[in-house]
Write a structure and sequence with these properties.
Elements lengths: L10 E5 L5 E5 L26 H8 L4 H46 L2 H14 L1
Helix pairs in contact: 1-2, 2-3
Length: 126
C-alpha cells in the first residue's frame, strides 16, 4: 500500500433517479430512518366452495333456485351419509366383538358339546 495515498473510503452503490447506478461514499448518504415493523393484517376465511356443479347446472338451463338448493343440501347430504357410515361401522365392530365374546365363553364354559356349538357358530359366520 502506498503511504502517500489517502486511506480508501467505503463506497456504496446507489440507484440514481434516472435508473443508473453510481458509487458514492457512505457519509454522503442520508441517514436511514429507523424502520418500523410492518403491521400485517391477515384475514382468515373458509375456502370458497367449488362452483363447478353450479356452472354446469346453470349452463344446462336449471334455475338459480335449483342451484342454490344443491349448494345448500349437497354438504348436508355428505354429512348425513358420513354419519350413517360411521354408525354402520360401529355396529359392525360391536357385532364382531360380541360374536367373539360368545364363542369364547361357550368354549370356556362347556365341554365337547360347547366346542361343537362354537365350531358351528364359526361356520355360520363364514
Amino acid at each position: 500500500m502506498n503511504p502517500n495515498l489517502p486511506a480508501p473510503r467505503a463506497l456504496t452503490v446507489v440507484q440514481l433517479p434516472d435508473g443508473t447506478y453510481a458509487y458514492t461514499p457512505a457519509e454522503h448518504l442520508p441517514a436511514a430512518a429507523p424502520q418500523q415493523p410492518q403491521q400485517i393484517v391477515q384475514h382468515i376465511h373458509q375456502a370458497p366452495p367449488d362452483r363447478t356443479i353450479q356452472r354446469v347446472a346453470l349452463g344446462s338451463g336449471m334455475g338459480a333456485g335449483a342451484v342454490a338448493a344443491g349448494v345448500y343440501f349437497g354438504p348436508l347430504l355428505v354429512g348425513a351419509l358420513t354419519a350413517i357410515a360411521a354408525n354402520l361401522a360401529l355396529l359392525a365392530f360391536l357385532a364382531v366383538a360380541m360374536t367373539w365374546g360368545v364363542v369364547t365363553i361357550v368354549r370356556t364354559v362347556g365341554g365337547a358339546d360347547a366346542k361343537a356349538a362354537a365350531k358351528n357358530l364359526r361356520g355360520r359366520r363364514r
